[in-house]
# Entry
Amino acid sequence: MKPLSCEELQRMGGSLLQELLEGHSFLLVHEGTAVAEIQPIVRESPLLTREEAIERLKAFRKKHPLGDLNVRQMIDEGRS
# Structure
């Protein structure tokens, strides 16, 4: 974990985000005292692409039909 002063954090701007995306973690230090950890979120599975998400939703709808209802009826009844 890299030490990072509050001043450095302000100067880094968007480069901090890039380093987080690359998996780097930081220990935020203020006046010599560690005050926070900044680290990327570890996901159990990678994010889905738009197409993958749509396919999963379609598969879910096939397994869980609405029966006699349709989406328009649910919206009209305030059940969305």
